[in-house]
Input
Amino acid sequence: MKSLHYFMMFCLVVGMSYAQELTITGTVTDKDTGETLPGVNVVILGTTTGTNTDFDGNYSIKAKVDDVLEFSFVGYTTDKIKVEIGISVIDVVLMGDAAMLDEVVVTAQAVKRQRKVLGYSVSTISAESVSKPRSKRRKNRRKNRRKQISRQLAGTVPGVTISNSTNNSGVPITTSPVIIRGNGTISSSNQPLYVVDGIPLDSKDVAKIQNINPNKISDVKVLKDTNATALYGSRAKNGCIIITTHKGNYKIENNESYEEIVENNFAKVTTSPLSTFSIDVDKASYSNVRRMINNGQQIPADAVKIEEMINYFDYDYKQPIGDHPFAIHTEYGNTPWNTDTKLVKIGLKGKEIPMDQIPASNLVFLLDVSGSMNSPKKLPLLKRAFKLLVNQLREKDKVSIVVYAGAAGMVLKPTSGANKNEINQALNNLEAGGSTAGGAGIELAYKIAQENFIKEGNNRVILATDGDFNVGMSSDKDMKTLIEEKRKSGVFLTCLGFGMGNYKDSKIEILADKGNGNHAYIDTMQEAQRILGKEFGGTLYTIAKDVKIQVEFNPSKVQAYRLIGYENRMLQDEDFVDDTKDAGELGSGHTVTALYEVIPVGVKSKFLKYIPELKYTNTKKNKDFGDELLTVKFRYKKPQEKKSIELVHILNVDNYEVSKDFNFAASVAWFGMKIRKSKYLVKDNINDIIALAKENKSNDPQGYRAEFIRLMNSHQAL
Output
């Protein structure tokens, strides 16, 4: 009897162990290089439960004993591992699959494969099944035009259900939800991912898919197995409908806007010896370009700001020593895209201020909750991102929350950073809807910031929006006038861009540039972690404002020069010593890098245009400065002061040895010039750019440089 009792207890314990939900964590790495892999899909086989590895290759997922975890990533073989009793850490090593890469065309997470290599459930509907024969089409033309693509899948593809839905008022919804069998509940949250001509579409654009003329469709594929998430990630957890049109170039209307960029030209040193510009610590362009590559989109040239791409990366600049808040670093070497020119790199490294030494913060979250923010990559991502920031607040910090849609209002009065639950609950309660009165929101946010102003403290408005202002003051000119007035208050500004489709980069950039601020674009939680987590101090605490750079080239060494990027940051030469002229801000620990392409004396170049000799101006070269290539001057103000301080640095040409950082920055500039179709590229082979980046990846603890190389490979395949 006692033995039976023990046996039953043993069975009970074993049964409970198998039923218990465990938290499984681990790291995914590349077998050949040992590097961590961000973005790997981790899915519990046979379910829609999954996650992705972060930028460090780490993951965390809840699973039960005997569940099978599947690890998949484009270009690697898939690995499956069973969860066993007593094991909570599962590290995975994935092997590159060259055969797979030969057959994969990556359009971000949109992947085309030959059908024979698809190892999961695919149903295909031919064009003839989608559109009726010509004779019947003529008779039923109006009916066909109204017929939705989704309804033509019903009865044609096994496992596809069309739901007749109504809204809260009982009114039928014109766009019928499509449910792919296998989901437990028929609801709008179970909608599949749509991919049209290789482009995964945002949920807000699904209604537009129903307007595609069936006669223009070549075929429709439905992926129903969870293995399809290996192609499109967790977005395809409810299945995927892949629509291919006859022309293969169907586009959802894009209403994004970017300020025009006119590429800097070469200037002759004898007639234009000075080059003056404001620093730019913004990084928005890189993450925005990354989003476009990952979505397989065409990249508008004006969306590519080369200086922001270069400045996205950290460089091994030494910390400043002494009273000045930044250190200066310069290098001179070869240009990888043109053997007739040289490159000059000028770098700044801001002093890193420990969190416990940053003064008390008075922060006002200014959040866009208008209807245009109603998509997963906008307001929901915004709320999760801001919780990262809230988790780092101290008791002495205080936060207010202002929201705006058709009007503006305060939803959280000034609250101590110690009350994190209260702040997070206010974020949780936010919902999107209505028009966008951005100007009214800015007015109210600055009013609250000024009412709670902390002398010698960190006073800042943090604006999060897609920039789509459409009520009241809304034009770029209106925003410029408004924010120039508000910056006089001593309140700084951080602008965070979210979303796609109607993203107004031009407006957000104006606000950041003219409002003593900085600008970032958040496309993923990983980017949110970088901007509001890893770089929290630099994003939110300014150590030097109105930072200007002026370079004078030695005409006995340099014939001509051009600044790569910074087109929208150029200043007049006289602005350098004018303390009333606004310029960029430098945050704690920030790095700033600028590249000049120069044509040395004695080199013939097709880019060097002839200028007639001047009659009245003496352009005789002074040869008394030996090996001096240039003199670079810096001016900056302390955050609470109005008078600038000047520093001077000289670069000689006696040392040509350059760092890996120099070459990596050159590879980023090279890639930016390529996607902008720069007229100054002599060599533009993408394989050469990738090779240069790989050879100079150097120390990459966060994996950002490795990600850049993967992005170039993806762009090459588009």
Observations:
- The first helix runs from residue 2 to 19.
